[in-house]
Backbone:
């Protein structure tokens, strides 16, 4: 009888922990610390817009693309914080979208220094739109917990 | 037999709670995953763009671009902050939050601190009404604004902070469908201001910047298109913005640009008549949304 009560209590605790972990997962991708680090790298540019991309690894590789409209002649800085990623997600900036043949890669982290978590790119000339691609590698097993990649755009 | 019943009474609700919470936390990502499609070279193309969305600039940047082109301050052309309390739906509150953000930026950049303060209050009030009150509640942005009235650089930093907090809260509250609505409100208000100033004081640089703003239109309509099922008021706005796009695409200088892939916005110059057609359409949308409260 006592053993059953203890087991019940243990399961209750486990269930509460399970629910708590789920809340934690939702919060992981909205980390103020990750954003703060990106914002520091944005300085002295002013915050213009930002995007938190949730990354789930799957058995097949993925490509996610973000369209970034900009104004002609303005100066911009792009900052990516990959600190919360466990795998090497390649970030590239293009002049055209993924459907366009012969598009030009303007920036890529493909050959970035291993361990580098903050990536910064300042386009030489703003031309109305940039396309930021995330190449997410495959994983043997799909992950249940999303990781996140922070992108901030600044102007001055 | 009693003990297992006690045990079950304790266990069942907690497991159900845990499972429900876990499912809620992960549902957004699962939806994205299910909509991915495979293309020929083993690259998966993201077709469900609901999670990714696009990026839209800050109202402050739009106002700063107009300001640097020589746009002057004219009193009386911004929207009435007194009307803030009359907006009654989430859509109109989000829209007017954008409108007042643009008015606030215009005032800050022109050192009009008193109306800027009034618009800040209006922005805060609209934000609170649509569950975005944390933008100001969690930070000292409101107090910092009032304490830095004489310092334009600080005020601009604070406005950038408001935009950053707005983006964060929209994501955190799962209200990203309002992102495009808020920006559309700010953008139409900025164009309305630029158009009004241009009508009274024609300036070629302002004209060119107004024309260049049209590059953002497609990004706004894409953002609204993604989210039109989440609020029935988005579709009529989308239709209005699509008709603005049609007016723009019908301009002779734009047709010339579209026919030649080597030409960009900087290579063509709209005529005054073309610009007035755009301004007229913007005014049509502006007046329609202003009376929507």
Residues:
């Amino acid at each position: 009888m006592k053993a059953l009560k203890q087991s019940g209590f243990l399961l209750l605790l486990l269930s509460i922990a399970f629910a708590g972990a789920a809340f934690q997962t939702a919060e992981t991708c909205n980390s103020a610390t990750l954003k703060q680090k990106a914002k520091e790298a944005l300085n002295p540019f002013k915050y213009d817009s930002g995007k938190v991309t949730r990354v789930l690894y799957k058995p097949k590789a993925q490509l996610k693309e973000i369209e970034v409209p900009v104004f002609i002649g303005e100066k911009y800085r792009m900052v990516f914080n990959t600190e919360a990623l466990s795998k090497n997600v390649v970030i590239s900036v293009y002049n055209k979208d993924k459907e366009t043949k012969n598009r030009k890669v303007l920036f890529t982290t493909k050959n970035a220094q291993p361990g580098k978590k903050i990536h910064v790119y300042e386009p030489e000339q703003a031309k109305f739109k940039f396309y930021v691609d995330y190449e997410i590698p495959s994983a043997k097993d799909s992950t249940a917990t999303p990781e996140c990649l922070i992108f901030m755009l600044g102007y001055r | 037999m009693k003990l297992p019943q006690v045990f079950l009474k304790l266990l069942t609700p907690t497991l159900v709670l845990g499972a429900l919470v876990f499912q809620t936390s992960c549902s957004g990502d699962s939806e994205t995953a299910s909509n991915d499609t495979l293309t020929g070279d083993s690259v998966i193309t993201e077709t469900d763009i609901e999670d990714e969305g696009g990026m839209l600039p800050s109202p402050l940047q739009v106002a700063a671009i107009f300001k640097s082109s020589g746009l002057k301050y004219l009193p009386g052309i911004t929207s009435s902050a007194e009307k803030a309390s009359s907006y009654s739906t989430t859509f109109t509150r989000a829209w007017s939050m954008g409108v007042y953000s643009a008015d606030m930026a215009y005032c800050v950049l022109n050192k009009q601190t008193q109306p800027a303060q009034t618009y800040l209050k209006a922005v805060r009030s609209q934000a609170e009404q649509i569950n975005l009150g944390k933008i100001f509640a969690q930070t000292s942005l409101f107090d910092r604004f009032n304490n830095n009235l004489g310092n334009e650089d600080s005020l601009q930093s604070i406005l950038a902070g408001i935009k950053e907090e707005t983006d964060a809260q929209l994501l955190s509250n799962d209200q990203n469908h309002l992102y495009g609505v808020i920006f559309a409100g700010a953008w139409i208000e900025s164009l309305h201001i630029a158009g009004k100033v241009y009508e009274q004081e024609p300036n070629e640089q302002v004209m060119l910047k107004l024309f260049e703003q049209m590059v953002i239109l497609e990004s706004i309509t894409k953002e609204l298109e993604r989210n039109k099922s989440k609020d029935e008021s988005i579709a009529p706005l989308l239709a209005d913005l699509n008709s603005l796009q049609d007016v723009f695409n019908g301009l002779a200088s734009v047709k010339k640009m579209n026919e030649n892939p080597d030409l960009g916005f900087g290579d063509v110059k709209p005529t005054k008549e073309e610009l007035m057609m755009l301004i007229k359409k913007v005014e049509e949308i502006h007046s329609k949304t202003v009376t929507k409260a």
